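Lecture 7, part 2: worked example. A protein chain together with 3,4-dihydroxybenzoic acid.
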Amino acid sequence: MPNLNVRAFGLDFANCFMNASGARCMTEDELHALGESKAGAIVIKSATIEPRTGNPEPRYFENEWGSINSMGLPNPGYKAYCAMISRLKKHRKPVIASIAGFKIEEFVEMTKAFDAAGADAMEINLSCPNVAGKSQACYDLDYSEEVLKRVRASTQKPLTVKLSPYLDIAPRVAMAQALKRARIDGVVLINSIGNALIVDPVAERAVIKPKDGHGGLGGAYIKPVALANVATFYQTLGEEIPIVGVGGIATGTDAFEHILCGARLVQVGSQLQKEGPIVFARVQNELLEQMKQKGYEKLEDVRGKLGMPE
Ligand code: DHB
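Predicted complex, written out as structure tokens:
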């Protein structure tokens, strides 16, 4: 039987799957449920300095193709998450803190605090699309590089960065090069496609309320955009900076596609929200079955091996 073990940024993962930050990971109960599931790691909801209640409801909607959300960063604040980390350790899998600052100093303060609290890695979120009046930080390359250099200087622990999709090749290459300069350990691709709009034609209105109905698109809708971002970053980064693929993973085959494009780890968002933490056992079995049928022993045999039509 093949195995799904992965080593990335100095950490060992029992398998390549984990939750995408945001999906069923806001409360301590939800985080323990991920710990008890077959997920290979626990990723915490993006934390801010102050607790936030988030945007008005309805703020999440799903259909057969995926989801749209404008949660608005509801979370109990980083100090509450720091206090939970020691209790999450009993699950014996990496605990990854996601950090959403509104200024550079906030990213630095939270990075230091999560390091001291025992987080195994920090995911720097430069890609939240849902705060009114704020742009997605990762679309400003200079600002992003400044944040990354400052957080890099504030911890020795593994640091990953979560990015929004880039719809052109050049900004993907430019950002990949900036990640090398900033000595970032991993890159999470992609966050939801920001500021999408889903319309209910019967009710003749948007399906979510915040930001005039605009929110981050996830699920099957976005898989081709995610795969393209993973593939381009892999061309520039190779094995030097591991890629965490996210976007449209609902089956083992979806994960297999991300891995072919170069993903070392993968995250599940919309489908976890829909199905619950039991999703991890299913997608792992599906991926193992696929690898067995194709004669692959380990993920390395698949990773980055995407071919092209003759
Ligand atoms: C939220 C959404 C995101 O895509 C993200 O990266 C962080 C927060 C939110 O709306 O809560």
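The longest strand covers residues 95-99. The mean pLDDT is 98. Keep this in mind for problem set question 3.
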